[in-house]
Amino acid sequence: MIVGVDIGTQSLKVVITDDNLLVLGEATMAYQPSFPKPGWAEQDPSLWENALSPTIARALDLANAKPGEIVAIGIGGQLDGCIGVDGQGLPIHPCLTWMDRRAEKQIAGLPADDILKRTGIILDASHMAAKICWLKDNFANGNIGQLFHVPVSYIVHRLTGVAVMDHAHASTSMLYSLTDRAFDSTLLDMFGIKKHELPAIANATEIAGALTSEGEKLTGLPEGIPVAVGTGDDFSTLLGAGVVQPGRLTCVLGTAEVVGALHSSPVIDEGRLVETHAYVGNTFFIENPGWLSGGALEWFRETFRLVDFAELDALAEAIPPGSEGLTFLPALSGTMAPEWIASAKGCFYGLTPAHGNGHMARAVLEGTAFAMRDVIERLNEMAVEIRSILLLGGGAKSRTWAKIRADMTGLPVEVPNITDTAPIGSAMLAAVAAGIQPDLLSAAKLVGDVSKTIMPDRQAKPAYDEAYGNYRRLFNTLRPLFS
């Protein structure tokens, strides 16, 4: 049996699978990030460590399995976090999570065009290199630590004693050359980072090392079990849904909405809406790393005191496409589409006495989907193949939201049987690393069964085209206010 772990922002998830990646048991332990100052978002790595053993134990119980039956472990988790550790691999400060933007000053004036050309990603304070610079600038004598980790490589290091990250994860750091498939010496010098301050790079399907005695304490599993290198959740989520070849747009509807598609070559978006990341194998994931989407729905649910998301859907269902002229700009935490503007703010526009809660509910569902359409249109311009949309994450359970996306784009929308696929992707990597499955292509055939396909209503698309045009005009009109 195999253990797959996902280190999320709000919870740690574990699945126990058999050798064919059938989920036998799963469990979750919740925790939260902290926000000590505006623009700061931290998380204590001990939250992840303390969650491992009890969550694995609960998943094992549900699978009617014993620790001695586990033959491999895979770790995945949140991207763009940064943790400095000491010589024993222990953290010397909280993790600066993907939401943390305190390093804006550290990247001011850096050559954004050169960084984009080398890395395929956008100069932004959310990425690891910027956070390392902030840590060095704000700790005594710049002596912040022996090594800098992302959350996944940190946990792998704690379990195995080996400091390593995969190519996909490294490609989110702002330090990785897409062409050389290695950390770029020019970028390292630009950010003042030494190569020995970073984990080594290996394939996600390689074995990082075996579970040590410390790893045994943290997991409750026997020492000696192989642990895969693993990858970030943007990538493990795709893997767990069986996405290993181009043709599908994947849309992960979590707190944030991550939208992207696989491509055979490392095309780069000079318009800076999407980023290009190394993916497993020889493909590349062209993605927008996400805006507050499920988080916007949660904000609306709490603000308007709805019982649950089913009530939100019911309100929205009673309103026609286009919300009768009401537009929601999904910028509650800045915009990532149609442009990256951290200082942007969200709004409703077009309110009249004729509008009520239902209109606002539908406008939120539509506005977040308009941002997805922004990404689709850019990917089309880049000749990235898209034949259908695959919805993943908790938001994929909403048929109303799925139908809006199908009708708005004219593309069929697929929803798999299991929508929370990140820990399954971690288990896939472990299965290949341990030789249980021959390769990821074979493993991908075992997962990601589609439970329903929602076909677009062609008659609804003109109304959505008009509403989308209104959304873009609203964005352009408000843009001068964002600065």
What does this structure look like?
Helix 12 crosses helix 13. The protein has a 7-stranded mixed beta sheet with strand order 18-19-17-16-22-23-24, sandwiched between helices. A 5-stranded mixed beta sheet has the order 3-2-1-5-15, sandwiched between helices. Strand 18 and strand 19 form a beta hairpin. The termini are far apart. It has 483 residues and is an alpha+beta fold. The model has no long low-confidence stretch (mean pLDDT 94). It is 35% helix and 22% strand. It is built from 16 helices and 24 strands. It is globular and about 65 Å long.
Blueprint of the fold:
Blueprint: E1 2-7, E2 11-17, E3 23-30, E4 42-43, H1 45-62, E5 72-77, E6 83-85, E7 95-96, H2 104-107, H3 112-119, H4 128-138, E8 147-149, H5 151-160, E9 164-166, H6 167-170, E10 176-177, E11 182-183, H7 185-191, E12 200-202, E13 207-210, H8 213-219, E14 226-228, E15 231-232, H9 233-240, E16 247-253, E17 256-263, E18 275-278, E19 284-292, H10 294-303, H11 309-317, E20 327-329, E21 347-349, H12 357-381, E22 386-392, H13 399-409, E23 413-416, H14 422-433, H15 440-444, E24 450-454, H16 461-482
Parallel strand pairs: 1-5, 5-15, 9-12, 16-22, 22-23
Antiparallel strand pairs: 1-2, 2-3, 4-7, 6-8, 10-11, 13-14, 16-17, 17-19, 18-19, 20-21, 23-24
Helix pairs in contact: 9-14, 11-12, 12-13
